[in-house]
Every structure is written in structure tokens, then in C-alpha cells.
């Protein structure tokens, strides 16, 4: 990557800001907020994430313009954000008014005021996380290859930070659930003179009979709202 020290510092500062966020939601928002600083030439950014069921959405964006442009892609089922997740890792659009690859979405986005687009894949070594979408309200003659590389560098680092935040949040949630269930077991053991396994069996049976998650049943017991 043919970048100078100032560019590297800008990218490093952006990645550092993303990696220092306390939770997944903050990480997502910081990724888009820092993207317009990390990658020159764009004032608007959003993230397209793929869900387990194969659908996609935009959990974070710098502004309403991005959300409208992304939502149009999802409704029309075409566009660079979607293809960056599922098809290829880089899509550049110098001028949306001349774009023909997405004939339904391009004029909609152009009418919103968007003229040029850079969409790159966010991935870790293990999986594709989503896509980073950068929008500008001015067309460009050509995309500088260094800028595209900088976008990829930032997107990969941001994707890794997001994966770590997601994993950490999942572990934290699991620990909280285990603690909550343990508290509920303790209450049932004391109330009904049960052992640990029997108390857990009561919680599990209540969960199955009421079609309520085990965690929520445990919360009801702890809060004194369960009729057991």
C-alpha cells in the first residue's frame, strides 16, 4: 500500500478508536463514524451486516441518507452493498448517473443525492462479517487505488474489532445467564428443600411448559413473579 506516514497514522487512530469501544453497539457506530475520516473523499458511511437467515440490514450509519440508500437496496434486492457481502469484495461507482450494473437501485440512489460509491467487504480470516459502504455526493473521475486499499485495510480491521466485540458480548451474556439461573436455583432449593439438579429440572420444566426461555423463567423466580 503506497501510503505515507500521515495516512498510516490516520488509519491507526481510526482503528484504535473502534477497538476501544465498550460494547457491540458502540463498536458498530464508531466504525461508520471513523470511516469517513479513515477513507478520504466520502462524507457518508454505513455497514451492511448479514444475518444467520441470509437477510441483510444496516445496524449503523452516519446519517439518514445512508439508511435510505441502503434500504432501497434491500427492497430492490440489488446494489453494491449487497454484492460486497455475497459476491465480490470491492465495488466502485464513479458516477451513479452512469451506472448500469444495478439498473433499479442506481437512479433511486442518484435521486437521493448520491453520486459516487465505494463498497468493500468486511471480513475476518474465518468469515465474512458484512460490507462497509461509503457514499459521496460528488462524482469522481476515477478511484485512486490507494484509497481503495485504505478502505480494505480499515474494513478488515473494523471487521475484526466487530467480531471480537460480538464474541465478548456473547460471553458476557452467557455469564450473566448462568449467574441468573444459579440465583433462581438457590431460591428454589431454599424454598422447596431441593438439590441443585432438582431445582434446575423445575426451571427447565417451567420453561418448556410455558414456552418461555429458561433465562426469563429464572428472572421471574428471582423477581418473585414465578408461580412455581
Automatic annotation (TrEMBL):
Gene3D superfamilies for this protein: 3.30.450.40, Winged helix-like DNA-binding domain superfamily/Winged helix DNA-binding domain (1.10.10.10)
SMART domains for this protein: ANTAR
MF terms (GO), sorted A to Z: kinase activity; RNA binding
ANTAR domain ranges (all copies): 161-222
Pfam families, alphabetized: ANTAR, GAF_2
Keyword vocabulary terms for this entry: Kinase, Transcription, Transcription regulation, Transferase
SUPFAM superfamilies: CheY-like, GAF domain-like
Protein name: GAF domain-containing protein
Lineage, broadest ranks: Bacteria, Bacillati, Actinomycetota, Actinomycetes, Micrococcales
